[in-house]
Amino acid sequence: MPVMFASEIKSGLDCNVLVLNKHYMAIRIIGARRAFSLLFRELAEVVSVEKDKYSNYDFQSWCELSQLKRHFEPDGHDWVSTVNFYIAVPRIIRLLFYDRLPRTEVKLNRRNIFARDKNKCQYCGKRQPTSELSLDHVIPRSMGGKTAWENIVCACASCNVKKGGRTPKLAGMTLIQKPIKPKHNPLVHIHLSHQRYHSWKQFLDHAYWSVELK
Ligand SMILES: [Zn+2]
Questions:
Q1: In angstroms, what is the span from residue 161 Cα to ligand 1's centroid?
Q2: Per-residue pLDDT tens for 144-163?
Q3: Over the stretch 46-55, which tens digit does the pLDDT of each residue have?
Q4: Cα(59)–Cα(62) distance, integer angstroms
Q5: Which of 54, 64, 88, 148 could form a disulfide with 77 if both were Cys (CB 3.0 to 4.6 A apart)?
Q6: CA of residue 188 to ligand 1 center, whole Å
Q7: Rounded to the nearest whole angstrom, what is the distance from the C-alpha of residue 54 to the centroid of ligand 1?
Q8: Whose CA is closest to 47, among 67, 65, 34, 71?
Q9: Pick from 11, 48, 50, 47: which is nearest to 32 by CA?
Q10: Is 148 left (phi over 0), alpha (psi -120 to 50) or beta?
Q11: Residue 196 in contact with residue 15, Cβ under 8 Å?
């Protein structure tokens, strides 16, 4: 499931969930659907942060708590409806049997590039929904351009067409910034700026994540 940016969230299943390992270290971000699957299979538990304290819930007790939350604080959560009831989408889950450390390299993939470029076309600077953007090899592959952080950027459809299979110079276009390899997972920066993901902050202190917290 593609990671959605907060502005695109339409249903609870579009939300993102921070995954901790057994030792409460942040290891990755996944979609709500996958988080529910891990909870349902008892491979993970919910970590719920309230007033800087946190509580742990297995799937069953989270479902029960959700009934109360639905009644008393319906606006405080994103929801997924089942046939019989609503379940609050957890913001954080903890893998019960996984104790490996977070990956130290930021993976070169579509969602991380979109996050690094903040969904902005790197030629015209326009911000677009993920569906309207594609990835562009700055130096085209046909001219020896590599598939690397420094050579791939987000581009909108019209800039992509305009550029064709040329270098920016040949196409008379310029990049709005130099593409670089991010030191930290760029998705984390985007999510921390949204209220719904504030509870992630206290789990992101580990040296690897050392993100600037606003
Ligand atoms: Zn553009």
A1: 9
A2: 999 999 999 999 999 999 99
A3: 999 887 788 9
A4: 5
A5: 88
A6: 25
A7: 43
A8: 65
A9: 11
A10: beta
A11: yes
